[in-house]
Amino acid sequence: MGLMASEKDLITENPFAILVRRMNRIESQNEQILCYLQGKESSSASSDEILTIDQAADFLHLTTQTIYGLVSDRKIPFSKPTGSRLYFSRLELIEWLKSHRTATVDEQAQQYNQSRSSRGNRRGKGQVA
């Protein structure tokens, strides 16, 4: 049984040349994937999508009843241009989520230490040693 011409070429070709070709192809594909992903990130981050109440509820993983309650209490940013339907900005919802972030224990301790040291500095200024 004889070898086909392409198989003979692979056997006689320098194995390092084959590896270099394959690595170049992989690097090229990686660059294409990175460009695609960066394009996706920038387009989704820069475009502000307007959401209905159902879409906002899905986005925030809340029920529509909870969204209605937040709207009623004016605790969430919304628009009501026609006087009846509610709309939400995806970017405003993201900012709203970020603004309601709870500080970690380390951050709370750091804030406590900073406020404590600033109070100590104020008391010490008026006192004479």
Tags for this model:
two-stranded antiparallel ribbon, DNA-binding protein, flat, 129 residues, 6 helices
What does this structure look like?
The protein has 129 residues and is mostly helical. Among the domains are: 35 residues; 50 residues. Helices cover 69% and strands 3% of the residues. The protein is built from six helices and two strands; from the N terminus they run H-H-E-H-H-E-H-H. A two-stranded antiparallel ribbon has the order 1-2. It is flat and about 80 Å long. Keywords: DNA-binding.
Element layout with pairings:
Layout: H1 5-12, H2 15-46, E1 50-51, H3 53-60, H4 64-72, E2 88-89, H5 90-99, H6 105-126
Antiparallel strand pairs: 1-2
Structural class: mainly alpha
The proportion of residues forming helix, as a percent range, comes to: 55-70%
* Count of alpha/pi helices: 6
What is the first-to-last residue Cα distance? 103 Å
* Global morphology: flat
Number of DSSP strand runs: 2
The largest sheet is: 2 strands, antiparallel
Low-confidence stretches: none
Mean residue pLDDT: 83
H/E series: HHEHHEHH
Instruction: Provide the gyration radius in Å.
Output: 30 Å
- Strand line-up in the sheet with most strands: 1-2
Fraction of residues in β-strands: under 5%
InterPro entries: DNA-bd_dom_put_sf (IPR009061), HTH_17 (IPR041657), SinI_DNA-bd (IPR010093)
Pfam families: HTH_17
Keywords: DNA-binding
Protein name: DNA-binding protein
